[in-house]
Design goal:
By secondary structure, the protein is α/β, with parallel strands linked by helices. Helix content is 42%, strand content 16%. Strand 14, helix 16 and strand 15 form a beta-alpha-beta unit. The radius of gyration is 26 Å and the shape is globular. It starts with 19 loop residues before the first helix and ends in a 16-residue tail after the last helix.
Length: 539
C-alpha cells in the first residue's frame, strides 16, 4: 500500500524494550498470564474425571469435542465468559455452560453447549445469566445460533434463583425467530423440563437416535403426577418426536450425524451479513504484540501511553488523531483493524472537562459516518475538586455519558488497566451495553479504590467523633479501614469481575487485535447505523 493510498499517519513508538521498567512489566504480566492459562484450563475440565469418564463410557462426545467437530476446519472459536462462576459459592468454573463465536459452513454463528458432565447439564443461576449474555450477543449482532443441548433442566434446589432469568431464555429464542435470526438445536441426550423448551422453541431441531430424550417430565414424575406408566422412548425419545410429535425435524443416527446435519442446515440458510465495510488491504501492525506485556504496568497507579497500545493493534500502526492538542487525557482518532474502520477512544489519565467534551463530539462524528467504536479503558474516573466543579465537570461529563448512552454504532470495550467510578460509565462499561467487553489481567474495577475508600472512612469517623466531643478509637478505626481496603481490593480483582460476568472474558493482551477483529466481524452481521438523536446537552 502506498502512502497516497493510506493517508493515516504512522504512530512512532517511543518505548525502550531494554529499559528496567519495560522488563519488569513484561516479567510481571507474563507471570499473570500463567495464572490466566491455569484458570482457563480449569474451565475445560467440566464435572471432573469421574463424570467425564462416565460420559465417554456411554459412547458420548464431550461438549467441547462436539463444538470442535461442528466448527469449520480452520475456524476460530472466541469463547465468551469462560471463567463465569469461578470462586462463586455453589458454581463450577464456566458455570456448566460453554459459549462462543465461530464459523460453521462458512457462516459466523454463536455456539452454546450445556456441559452435561456438570450435574447432568442442569441450569444454575450462573448458567442462566451466561446463557442470557450469549443470547444478547446473538440478537444484537444478528448471529445465527446453534445450541448443543443435554440438560437436566433447572437445578431444582436453587430454583428460586433460576426461575426468572431462566424463563428469559425461551423469550429470547422466539424473539430472535421473529427477527429472522435462525436458531438450531442439536439434542444429544436427556433434556428435561426447561431443557425441553429449547428444542421446542428453536427454528430447527435435530435429535440423536437412541440417545436424545425430550420431555417436560420424566417417567418417575409422570407416574407420581398422573399415575401413568411409560418408558423414556414413549414419553420423549428421538424416534417418537421425529415420527409422532413433530418436535424433532431431523433424526440423526449418532452424534457425528447430528453435527453433520447441523452444518447442513447452516449451509442452506444462505445467510448474508447485513453490513459490509469498504474493502481495503489488511496490514499487520509495525510493532510486535509481545511489547504490550512490557508497556502496560501491572500496577494501575503507574500510567502508560495508550498510543503505544494502539500502535500494536491497528492496521499498519496508522492512526489519525482527532484534536491532539485538546483534552489530552482522552485520545480520540480513526484507524482500521483487519480492514474494519474504527473510531478509538483511549484514556491517557483522569477525565477532565475538555476530554469529556472532545469524546462526546468524536462519538457523534463516528455515528455520523457509521464507524464502530473501540474504547480502551484505563482511568480512575473524572477529576474532582473546587476548580473543576466550578468549570462544570458534571455537565461536561454528562455530555460524554449522553453520547455513549445514545450511540448506536457497534462498540467494543477493552479494559487495559483501571476502571473506576463514572470513568467506567463514560468509557462504555458493561452498564452501557457494548457489543463486546474484554479485560486484560492487570485490570482493576470498582467505584473507588480500597485505599481511597478507607481514607474517606477515616475522615468521616474522625469528623463524627469530633462532633460528639469523643476521642477516636484508633484501634477500632484501624481494623475497620483494613477490612474495608481488603474487601474492596478483593472485589476489584479481574477474576472477581469476570466470575460475575461483568465482562466477556480476560484475554492475553497479545491477543487483543485478534479478539477485536472477531468482535468487529460479528458486529457487521447486523446493520451498522449511527444515531442522529441525542439527549439534551447542558451548556
Amino acid at each position: 500500500m502506498t502512502r497516497a493510498e493510506q493517508p493515516f499517519p504512522l504512530l512512532q513508538s517511543r518505548i525502550d524494550p531494554r529499559s528496567p521498567e519495560f522488563r519488569a512489566n513484561h516479567e510481571a504480566n507474563s507471570k499473570s498470564l500463567v495464572g490466566l492459562r491455569a484458570a482457563l484450563v480449569e474451565a475445560t475440565v467440566g464435572g471432573g474425571e469421574k463424570y467425564t469418564s462416565r460420559h465417554k463410557a456411554a459412547g458420548k462426545l464431550l461438549p467441547r469435542e462436539r463444538i470442535e467437530l461442528l466448527l469449520d476446519r480452520d475456524s476460530y472459536f472466541l469463547e465468551l465468559c469462560a471463567l463465569a462462576g469461578k470462586g462463586v459459592p455453589g458454581h463450577t468454573v464456566g458455570a456448566g455452560f460453554i459459549g462462543g463465536i465461530g464459523r460453521v459452513s462458512g457462516v459466523e454463528v454463536i455456539i452454546t453447549a450445556n456441559d452435561s458432565t456438570v450435574k447432568g447439564g442442569a441450569i444454575s443461576e450462573m448458567t442462566a445469566w451466561k446463557s442470557g449474555r450469549c443470547n444478547d450477543i446473538a440478537e444484537q449482532n444478528r448471529l445465527p445460533s446453534i445450541t448443543l443441548i443435554e440438560s437436566a433442566g433447572a437445578d431444582l434446589p436453587n430454583q428460586s434463583k433460576i426461575f426468572v432469568p431462566g424463563g428469559r431464555g425461551f423469550r429470547d429464542l422466539t424473539n430472535r425467530s421473529a427477527q429472522k435470526i435462525p436458531s438450531i438445536c442439536l439434542v444429544f441426550g436427556s433434556s428435561t423440563a426447561g431443557g425441553a423448551y429449547i428444542p421446542g422453541m428453536s427454528d430447527y431441531t435435530v435429535m440423536v437416535q437412541n440417545q436424545a430424550q425430550v420431555y417436560l417430565a420424566g417417567p418417575p414424575l409422570v407416574k407420581m403426577a398422573i399415575g401413568e406408566e411409560t418408558t423414556h422412548e414413549e414419553l420423549g425419545g428421538a424416534e417418537m418426536h421425529s415420527r409422532i410429535s413433530g418436535v424433532s425435524d431431523y433424526l440423526a443416527r449418532d452424534e457425528h450425524d447430528a453435527i453433520r446435519i447441523g452444518r447442513e442446515i447452516v449451509a442452506h440458510l444462505d445467510w448474508r451479513k447485513s453490513a459490509h465495510a469498504t474493502p481495503r488491504p489488511i496490514e499487520a501492525p509495525k510493532y510486535a504484540a509481545d511489547d504490550l506485556l512490557g508497556i502496560a504496568s501491572p500496577d494501575i497507579k503507574v500510567p502508560f501511553d495508550q498510543r503505544e497500545v494502539i500502535a500494536r493493534i491497528v492496521d499498519g500502526s496508522r492512526f489519525s488523531e482527532f484534536k491532539p492538542l485538546y483534552g489530552s487525557t482522552l485520545i480520540c482518532g480513526w484507524a482500521h483493524l483487519h480492514g474494519f474502520p474504527i473510531g478509538i477512544l483511549a484514556n491517557n489519565g483522569t477525565l477532565f472537562s475538555e476530554s469529556a467534551q472532545k469524546g462526546a463530539q468524536f462519538i457523534q462524528l463516528c455515528n455520523q459516518s457509521n464507524v464502530p467504536l473501540l474504547f480502551l479503558q484505563n482511568t480512575t474516573g473524572f477529576m474532582v475538586g473546587k476548580k473543576v466543579e466550578q468549570e462544570g465537570i458534571i455537565k461536561h461529563g454528562a455530555k460524554l455519558i449522553n453520547a455513549v448512552s445514545n450511540s448506536t454504532v457497534p462498540a467494543i470495550t477493552i479494559m487495559t488497566g483501571a476502571s473506576y467510578g463514572a470513568g467506567n460509565y463514560a468509557m462504555m462499561g458493561r452498564a452501557y451495553a457494548p457489543r463486546f467487553l474484554f479485560t486484560w489481567p492487570n485490570h482493576r474495577i470498582a467505584v473507588m479504590g480500597g485505599k481511597q475508600l478507607a481514607g474517606v472512612l477515616d475522615i468521616i469517623q474522625r469528623d463524627a467523633a469530633a462532633k460528639r466531643n469523643e476521642p477516636v478509637d484508633e484501634a477500632k478505626l484501624g481494623v475497620m479501614k483494613a477490612m474495608t481496603e481488603q474487601m474492596i481490593d478483593k472485589e476489584s480483582d479481574p477474576y472477581f469481575a469476570t466470575a460475575r460476568m461483568w465482562d466477556d472474558g480476560i484475554i492475553d493482551p497479545r491477543d487483543t487485535r485478534t479478539v477485536i477483529a472477531i468482535a468487529l466481524s460479528a458486529a457487521y452481521s447486523a446493520p451498522v447505523h449511527g444515531s442522529t438523536s441525542w439527549g439534551v446537552f447542558r451548556h
